[in-house]
Amino acid sequence: MYEHHYPEKRFNLTLKFLKQHQAPPQSILDLGVENPFSKIMQEQGYNVTNTSGTDLDNDQTEIITSKAQITTAFEIFEHLLSPYEVLKSIQTPYLFASIPLKLWFAKAYQSKADPRDRHFHEFEDWQFDWLLEKSGWKIVDHTKFTNPVNKIGIRPILRQFTPRYYLVYCEKAD
Prior knowledge:
Blueprint: H1 8-21, E1 27-30, H2 36-43, E2 47-50, H3 61-65, E3 70-74, H4 83-89, E4 94-100, H5 125-134, E5 137-145, H6 154-159, E6 165-172
Parallel strand pairs: 1-2, 1-3, 3-4
Antiparallel strand pairs: 4-6, 5-6
């Protein structure tokens, strides 16, 4: 479906989940710089604006001033020191977010090539649910899915049946 070697399963499931709850056309503020999935959302009829790459832990101006109808945050919150502050600053009534789940058989991710690319938080689903609730969001729907890899070893076998991603659709709580 996609031209490059993108994570096709994850993108297909995320797009289906998004369309199930908020069909295009809608305006979306996608947290993080432009990426392959934000381009896919645009191709599917959504009007997507990405944040400019500012450190969202220190500056939520783009989030606060956005006029979008929906905020998306796909694999963003695990990189933030204070996801609570970012979640509190979101002004849109709808939020779609996904996180990689903490796995008992894998350490927290830390890129050797890019010191900014690391996970400060590795959430279990209940921890992320609690964070969303505490920051003023009501989870309407959620799903978990696996992310098998074509490698040999114990961890690749475990990834065949252990959910790796957690995806939620939320609305602002009253």
